[in-house]
């Protein structure tokens, strides 16, 4: 994962994780959220990484683990600490970066897959 802060590309490697989506905070300059997964999202868990720039690159501000790969992330338009992610299990997770544990809420509405003309219940 690379981030451009102050004109220079910065890199942070996280062992066993592969970044899928990254988004800068609209509230805090330089703060970056990254949705990541193990094993390229094929199997394993996911991690939401909250990163801040520093003199030598990026530093980990906070991370949250989830039982399935995380594939997208976005910041709340109403609160500088709140993000939402989506995962391979079809759920959405609501996170608060001001709290060390999470998620605040999980929305699991997707229960069927559309496969070749019919729905398959998971």
UniProtKB/TrEMBL annotation:
GO terms for cellular component: cytosol; peroxisomal matrix. SUPFAM superfamilies: TolB, C-terminal domain. It is found in: Cytoplasm, Cytosol; Peroxisome matrix. The keyword Ribosomal protein does not apply. GO terms for molecular function: peroxisome matrix targeting signal-2 binding. Keywords: Cytoplasm, Peroxisome, Protein transport, Transport. InterPro entries: PEX7, WD40/YVTN_repeat-like_dom_sf, WD40_rpt. GO terms for biological process: protein import into peroxisome matrix. Belongs to the WD repeat peroxin-7 family. This is Peroxin-7. The gene is PEX7.
